[in-house]
Amino acid sequence: MRLPRRSLEIATSEDYKLLENMNKLTSLKYLEMKDIAINISRNLKDLNQKYAGLQPYLDQINVIEEQVAALEQAAYKLDAYSKKLEAKYKKLEKR
Questions:
Q1: What DSSP string runs through the chain?
Q2: What span is annotated as the signal peptide, if there is one (predicted)?
Q3: Of 1, 32, 38, 40, which residue has the fewest beta carbons closer than 10 angstroms?
């Protein structure tokens, strides 16, 4: 069974309109995604600039942490040395 030519033309025209609407919606969606990507990129640049501004302070914190660790080790050594001196003093005191 064949469709009349007029019905076929109407169906084809409606298909093209549907495709056109789908393309318009897809285009709008891509524009939204582009705007989102631009905002993300802008925010990432801002964060990178802020991080770069903080970097000297972060470096200082790392240096301070290293110095504190070295000072802590020195304190442990001094504590151990003072305990040895105390033990020697008590030993000499008993004589």
A1: -PPPHHHHHHHHHHHHHHHHHHHHHHHHHHHHHHHHHHHHHHHHHHHHHHHHHHHHHHHHHHHHHHHHHHHHHHHHHHHHHHHHHHHHHHHHHH-
A2: none
A3: 1
Rounded distance, CA 47 to CA 63, Å? Answer: 24
Can you tell me the distance from the alpha carbon of 58 to that of 80, in angstroms, rounded to the nearest whole number?
33
What's the average model confidence in pLDDT over 8-27? 88
Six-digit token string for 82 = 């003072």
Please tell me the predicted confidence (pLDDT) of residue 15: 87
pLDDT of 95 > 80? The answer is no
By residue count, the chain amounts to 95
